[in-house]
């Protein structure tokens, strides 16, 4: 009886751990979608002139990207290797095979975001500095993201 309870308890614990890892994968998808939204509907839309220049909105979007860069390393924990995302894109196994390369991508992304934060003070400076961020999103996707 007690043994049965222990076994069931151990199984439940196992399910809980897998669920927690899968939650990291879901958090990645949520953050990446927010990246797309902040870049597309706020930063790029403003740079293109589709939205009036609003320094508070620009700073807010850049702060979210900066925060995201800080969260990324933990979200790609070893324990999530091989877990599938429900989205259209998956994390490439290269993330865990080339950890230094992936860490360098995160650093380059964080640097691009802080550069734009320092430079974007009006429409012209936003236009001039923003492409560096999109370039880093693309660079990481090229090396470390695969289509589902
Ligand atoms: C350091 C690497 C890295 C950086 C930087 C990065 N991404 Fe991603 N992105 C990924 C990976 C890996 C995936 C695949 C999903 C996963 O990780 O589970 C992804 C997925 C996505 C997705 C698809 C989400 C889904 O579930 O369909 C979007 C959209 C996206 N990224 C947008 C962006 C944008 C926009 C930026 C820049 C502002 C960015 N990403 C920066 C690595 C990165």
Please supply descriptive tags for the structure shown above:
2 strands; 6 helices; 77% helix; binds heme C; mainly alpha; two-stranded antiparallel sheet; Four Helix Bundle (Hemerythrin (Met), subunit A); 148 residues
Could you describe the 3D structure shown?
By secondary structure, the protein is mostly helical. The chain has one domain: Cytochrome c/b562 (Four Helix Bundle (Hemerythrin (Met), subunit A), Up-down Bundle). Helix content is 77%, strand content 4%. It has six helices and two strands; from the N terminus they run H-H-E-H-H-H-H-E. It has helices spanning 2-48, 55-75, 94-97, 99-119, 123-129, 131-144; strands at 89-91, 145-147. It has a two-stranded antiparallel sheet with strand order 1-2. Helix 1 (2-48) packs antiparallel against helix 2 (55-75). It starts with a helix and ends with a strand. The model has no long low-confidence stretch (mean pLDDT 93). The protein binds heme C (HEC).
List the helices and strands and how they pair.
Blueprint: H1 2-48, H2 55-75, E1 89-91, H3 94-97, H4 99-119, H5 123-129, H6 131-144, E2 145-147
Antiparallel strand pairs: 1-2
Helix pairs in contact: 1-2, 1-5, 2-4, 4-6
The gist of it:
The chain has about 150 residues and is mainly alpha-helical. It is built from six helices and two strands. The radius of gyration is 19 Å and the shape is elongated.
């Amino acid at each position: 009886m007690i043994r049965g309870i222990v076994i069931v308890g151990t199984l439940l614990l196992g399910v809980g751990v897998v669920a927690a890892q899968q939650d990291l994968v879901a958090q990645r998808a949520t953050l990446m979608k927010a990246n797309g939204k902040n870049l597309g509907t706020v930063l790029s839309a403003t740079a293109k002139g589709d939205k009036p220049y609003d320094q508070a909105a620009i700073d807010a979007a850049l702060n979210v990207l900066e925060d995201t860069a800080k969260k990324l390393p933990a979200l790609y924990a070893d324990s999530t290797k091989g877990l599938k995302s429900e989205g259209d894109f998956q994390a490439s196994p290269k993330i865990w095979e080339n950890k230094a390369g992936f860490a360098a991508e995160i650093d380059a992304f964080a640097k691009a975001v802080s550069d734009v934060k320092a430079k974007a003070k009006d429409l012209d400076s936003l236009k001039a500095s923003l492409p560096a961020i999109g370039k880093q999103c693309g660079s990481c996707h090229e090396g470390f993201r695969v289509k589902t």
